[in-house]
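Long-time lurker. I teach an intro course on protein structure, and each term I like to show students one example going from raw sequence to a predicted 3D structure in token notation. This year I'd like something fresh instead of my usual example. Would anyone be willing to generate the tokens for the chain below so I can use it in lecture? Attribution to the forum is fine with me.
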Amino acid sequence: MYLQVTNDFFINIRIRDIIDILIVAVVLYKLFTLIKETRAEQLIKGIGILLVLTKLSEWAELYTINWILANAMTVGTLAILIVFQPELRRGLEYIGRSRFLSKSLIEIRGENISKVVEEIVEATASLSRQKIGALMVLERQTGLNEVVETGTKIGGLVTSDLLINIFIPNTPLHDGAVIIKDDLIKAAACFLPLTDSSNVSKELGTRHRAAIGISERSDSLSIIVSEETGAISIAENGTISRYLDSKTLKQILLDMYKPKKEDQLFTRKWRTKDEENEE
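-- Reply from a regular --
Happy to contribute to a lecture. Here you go:
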């Protein structure tokens, strides 16, 4: 009987059914990668347990418990939209940042990114040596205009001198974050949302928590200089990497701005040179 059912299944399946299954599989995989190692992962596990308990209570004829769980799941649909609001926004932003909807920075502007990176790294290194606290947020595809509105608009080209002067203590703009988009400093003295993650080390101050917070809500990369130690850190995708040197920071920024096509072309050229040398 089971063999007959299996045969009927494969006989009746159509190409569009296979395409349908593949699309659903890809969507589920993408959703899993988005919620992996986030609060949503634990919440989904909790929802799964509630679904199992609801079914078990139905089979065991525990009507009161089943009624409570069933109604909790019904009301929970609205609660899910509220609880998952950050993850839903993150997912929609991920779709909006897809390559077919946008071009890389170099493709759009044709600017020499290495110059911008040099200026940022030079300013960071100088601030680190002087133990001057700093927080720079590099905006990417996700717009940060609501953050820019909380600070003072600058609109100047990225230069190490300007960045250093902004963060000099006891100056009007030193307290807060600098927002950088492409080769422009959009604003300074901006307020950032703090992370509410319980996994952040208690030794990290407000500046580091703000950097993690904005990286949780956007695809930006934040550069932090500790006022106490002068240590350089970066925050991206809700995680922080600490105690970086200038060389490492420069490579991270170059990799961030480098378009994929250019990277693949470089790899092909490198392999071609290696093959020629071997010959």
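Some talking points for your students: Residues 24 and 30 are 10 Å apart (CA to CA). Residues 2-96 form one domain.
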